[in-house]
C-alpha cells in the first residue's frame, strides 16, 4: 500500500487533521516572521568561543581544494589555529559555505557568519514544522515554530554556534527526508534518493555523529512493521534502497571533508572514535561548584536541559507522554515513536556512556527540534481533548501566556538570550552563581565595543598598550584594526603576575568562590556587560604595577624584598584574592617568608 501520495494530498487540503486553511497560512507567516526577526537579530551577536577556529578551518578547507590538495592545513591545523588539535575531525561543511559566501558578502566576516547561522536555525525550525505537518498538521507545526523561536537557549545558539546548530538542522532534515523516502517505498524514483542522501552526507560533514542516522533507518523499519500493519514492507523492498542511501550518504560526506577524503572508508570512523572520547577537560560550573567536564555527574545533561528550557516547552513534552498512550493507533504512530527514539535515545546513550560534555547541553542540541515537535504534539493533544469552546479559549490563552514569559526575557536580555534559566533554579539571577553563564563569550563584543568607543580615544595613537584578557582569541578579532592595542592571553587568576594596561575579563573559568563573592570585580573597573545586573564581561584599567614587581622579585628569589610591594598593592586593590592569599599564607607579620614562596595561582583554573 503506497501511502505517500495520500498523505501529501490530505495535508495539502487540510482535511485529514480537520484543520482550516488559516493554520497553513499561520505556519507560513510564522516562518517568514521568524526568518525576518532572526536575520535582524544576528547583526547584534558577538563572536562565539568556537567561531574563530572554525572560520580558520573553513579557509583551510577552501585552500585545500583550490590548491588541489597542495595546501594541507585542513588535515591538521597549526596549534595557534586549533587549540585542541581536533578540527580536522569535523567535516566543516558549514564553515566552507561561510567562507565562500564571505567572498561576495557586503558584510563583515562574522556578521555574515551570524546571518548564515541564523538562516540555518530557521531551516531547522522549518524541517521541524514539516515533520509536525506530516504527523499532525499545520497547527502543530505553528506551535513548534514558536516553541523553537521563543526558546532562549536555542535562539542564542542559532546566532553564532557554527557546530551544533547546523548539525541540529541537518539531523532533523535527515529524519524528515528518510521518513518521506521510506513511506514512498517501494515505488521510489531516482530523484527520491537525492534529498535523504544529501541530508545524511551534510550531517556527517558537519559532525561525524551524523553516522547515527544510518542505523536509525533500521529502527524506523522495525517500528513500521510492529505499529503500522497496513504499511508493512518486505525486507527485500527496503534493504537495497536503504543501503543505497547509507552508502552514498556516508561516502558523499567525504567529498568536502579533506581529512575523510584521505580514506573515505576508515577516517570518518576514526573521527567518530576520537570525538566520542574527547580528551579536553573544561571546568564547568554546576550546582555551585566548578567540576572538570569528564567528572560531571550523570544528571548534568538532563538537568541542564530542564532548567534552561521554557515552561511551555517542558509542559508540552509532559503532556505528550501523558496523553499519547490514550491516542488511537494510526498510520502516523510509527513515525511519532520514531521521533521519540531519535530525540531521546542519543541523550540517554550519551549519559549512559558518560561522554565528555560541557557548556550545558549544547552538544546534544541536535535533539532539540525533535523535543520541540513532541512538545507541540503534546499541546495539540490537549487541545484535541477539549470540546467546550470556552475551555479551549482558556487553554489557548494559557499557551499564549506560556510564550510571553520567554518572549519578555529575550527582549529584556537581547543579545544575551543564551543566559536563560527558568524558575526551577530561581531564574537567571540565582543561576548566575551556580551554573554556566554566557560560556560562548557573546558578551565580549559589548565590552570591546564600549572600549573602542569610550576608552580607545583617550589613548595616544603613538602609545602601545597591552590589553590582557582570558578571551584573547576573540578580542584579537575585535581589535584587529587598532595597531596600538596588543592583546595578550591572561588567565584571571594570573592577572597579578602578567603585564597588562587594560583588562577585559570574561566570567568563564573564574573560580566559583571568586564569582560568588564578587571579588573578581577588582579595582579599576570601567565598564561591565551585565545580565540581570550581574557582570558577564568587565573592562578594567590597571590601578598599579606593584603586584608585577612583587612577583618578579619572587621569581628572582628575593621574597623578603617583595613583601612591601605586595603590601602596597593590597592597600590599593584590597579585593585582589591572589595578593591577599600570598600575604596571608606565606609571610609572617614581620614580612618574612614562612616557607618557600611559590608563584600563587600557577597551574590553577
Strands, total number:
7
Radius of gyration: 27 Å
End-to-end Cα distance, whole Å, is 62 Å
The coarse silhouette is: globular
Q: State the helicity in percent bands.
A: 55-70%
Give the number of domains: 2
Q: Structural class from helices and strands?
A: alpha/beta
SS strand fraction: 5-15%
Average pLDDT across residues?
Answer: 91
Strand order, main sheet: write it out. 4-3-5-7-6
The unreliable regions are: 1-16, 601-605
Total DSSP helices? 25
Tell me about the biggest sheet?
5 strands, mixed
Q: Features of this protein?
A:
605 residues; alpha/beta; 2 domains; 5-stranded mixed beta sheet; two-stranded antiparallel ribbon; 55% helix; globular
List the helices and strands and how they pair.
Blueprint (H helix, E strand, L loop, with lengths): L3 H9 L8 H21 L9 H16 L26 H10 L6 H27 L2 H12 L2 H9 L3 H21 L9 H11 L8 H15 L7 H18 L5 H5 L4 H10 L6 E4 L2 E4 L7 H8 L3 H13 L9 H21 L14 H18 L3 H25 L13 H5 L12 H12 L9 E5 L2 H7 L6 E5 L12 E5 L5 H6 L7 E7 L2 E8 L4 H10 L3 H14 L4 H10 L19
Parallel strand pairs: 3-4, 3-5
Antiparallel strand pairs: 1-2, 5-7, 6-7
Helix pairs in contact: 2-5, 2-6, 3-4, 4-5, 5-6, 5-7, 5-8, 5-17, 6-17, 8-9, 8-10, 9-11, 10-16, 15-17, 16-17, 23-24, 24-25
What does this structure look like?
- The chain is an alpha/beta fold.
- It has helices at 4-12, 21-41, 51-66, 93-102, 109-135, 138-149, 152-160, 164-184, 194-204, 213-227, 235-252, 258-262, 267-276, 300-307, 311-323, 333-353, 368-385, 389-413, 427-431, 444-455, 472-478, 512-517, 546-555, 559-572, 577-586; strands spanning 283-286, 289-292, 465-469, 485-489, 502-506, 525-531, 534-541.
- Helix 5 (109-135) runs parallel beside helix 17, helix 6 packs across helix 17 and helix 8 crosses helix 10.
- Residues 1-16 and 601-605 have low confidence and may be disordered.
- It folds into 2 domains: 22-413, no CATH class; 444-541, no CATH class.
- Strand 1 (283-286) and strand 2 form a beta hairpin.
- It contains 25 helices and 7 strands.
